[in-house]
Write a structure and sequence with these properties.
467 residues; two-stranded parallel ribbon; 2 strands; 21 helices; mainly alpha
Length: 467
């Protein structure tokens, strides 16, 4: 009997209205999560002033969110591979929305820390949105559409900077927390129409359910499915994952230890370890750059003046929102550059070129620069950092098979959150101690090693089918 695979169906139908709706839903998820993270640049100093906490406690507010994200990334990855993409998305978004709104009512610093930790756990499921979306995209368009998808993250950062600019000039930080949680509630309203991934359903041997999703896609796109019956890929050839099996996913199970065994198999081990380190470096650099934007100019002024008062962290910087807004705009050229070269030079080359470019922009910041020069250099570094992070979010899901994809990307994301946990100690702690050169040199070292790691990736995934 004639059969076709999920890839055959997606190629035959192309990227149509159905995928566009999936893009908008998944993109809104990324927009919501980027807003939750971006507000850390604004809330920390204001909380410090209101409750008179130390600079270390201000840094802790960011670190506790990333600790929650580390836990959430692993947990949601496991849940996604074991119980389905929709299940992971539903519970992670519900937790983010509920804890985000409730944190606006925090009566004290400790309760705010606890609630923002829960927000971090929910936001840890962000990577499921990217894996879920990519599993609906034809191979030919995957690179370009992933970069379009990543634009939602950039829109979220810019929107949050604009929202903070408007809200904090008129209302308190509590209102900013409340408004930031609203996109997650919109996701919950429209969750009922979000489809399960047909790739995941096939990996679970739920062929009839996968067929229903593809038929719905066919009707929406007004394009015919290939002739025959849907069949799962019988041979896992991606990265030589093993001998041919009738159905590797159904035989060994998915999620949990079965997925972990695949990640640490002989053929995947090198890719897994290198992806972990590059994800750590990208997270360290990206969130560090966000914090540098709000801390660097302030540190220069404070360290140049012997009469600086620690409690005036942001009161003397009227250009804070403008600087954050301008450097957030840098993510758009970063996405454009990535889109131009990712399908030309490939995933690996694009990542190492952008990482070394980020090093180049950060280098001059080891010494004091004029505020306009500082903003321009951070603009360039942010563009390169965003581009590299986006291509990594495309590369990692392409490396792993469907039955272990969310677990693999989830653990890598969790490793990345360690970078988010320690970067406030560099971006805030060292700068507040007037060690600007040492702080920038740490960024240079981490990014340089990540560039080398990208060169050492064993596989180029450009043009490959997702298994």
């Amino acid at each position: 009997m004639e059969t076709y695979t999920t890839d055959d169906a997606l190629t035959a139908m192309g990227f149509g209205k159905f995928q566009a709706l999936v893009l908008v839903y998944a993109g809104t998820g990324w927009l919501a999560d980027s807003m939750e993270l971006m507000l850390l640049s604004f809330v920390g100093p204001l909380v410090r002033q209101q409750w008179n906490v130390s600079a270390q406690h201000e840094s802790l507010l960011s670190s506790v969110v990333f600790t929650g994200m580390l836990l959430g990334a692993c947990s949601w990855g496991y849940i996604s591979d074991k119980y389905g993409r929709r299940t992971a998305l539903l519970f992670s978004v519900t937790l983010t929305a509920g804890a985000g709104l409730t944190s606006a009512l925090s009566p004290n610093y400790i309760s705010l820390l606890a609630l923002r930790f829960l927000v971090g756990v929910g936001v840890g499921g962000t990577h499921v949105f990217s894996s879920w979306f990519l599993e609906f995209v034809p191979t030919k368009n995957r690179g370009a559409w992933m970069l379009v998808f990543s634009a939602f993250w950039t829109i979220g950062t810019i929107f949050e900077a604009s929202l903070a600019w408007v809200v904090l000039s008129r209302l308190s930080w509590r209102w900013l927390l409340a408004f930031t949680s609203l996109p997650c509630f919109a996701l919950l309203v429209f969750f009922v129409v979000a489809p399960e991934s047909p790739r995941y359903l096939c990996a679970q041997n739920r062929i009839s359910d996968a067929t229903l999703v593809l038929e719905r896609m066919s009707r929406t796109n007004k394009a015919a499915l290939p002739p025959g019956a849907l069949a799962y890929h019988h041979t896992e050839t991606q990265l030589g994952l093993g001998e041919s099996t009738t159905d590797d996913a159904s035989k060994s199970g998915s999620g949990g230890m079965a997925a972990l065994r695949r990640l640490f198999s002989r053929k995947l081990l090198r890719s897994t370890l290198l992806i972990w380190f590059v994800w750590f470096a990208n997270s360290f650099a990206y969130y560090g750059l966000v914090l540098l934007t709000s801390q660097l100019s302030d540190a220069n002024r404070r360290c140049a003046s012997s009469s600086a008062h620690k409690s005036q962290a942001h009161e003397g910087n009227p250009n804070l929102y403008k600087d954050v807004f301008i450097t957030s705009l840098a993510e758009f050229p970063g996405l454009v550059i990535s889109a131009i070269i990712v399908d030309w030079l490939g995933r690996k080359a694009t990542m190492w070129i952008l990482l070394f470019g980020c090093c180049g922009f950060l280098g001059p910041l080891a010494v004091h620069q004029k505020e306009s020069v500082t903003t321009a250099l951070l603009f360039g570094a942010r563009a390169c950092g965003m581009g590299s992070s986006t291509v990594l979010c495309l590369y990692a899901p392409e490396v792993y098979p469907t039955s272990a994809r969310s677990t693999g990307v989830g653990i890598a994301t969790a490793i990345g959150k360690i970078g988010g946990i320690v970067c406030p100690l560099i971006a805030v702690g060292m700068l507040r101690s007037c060690h600007q050169m040492q702080a920038v040199l740490v960024f240079e070292l981490v990014l340089g090693l990540a560039g080398v790691a990208c060169i050492l990736f064993p596989v180029e995934t450009k043009g490959r089918e997702m298994k």
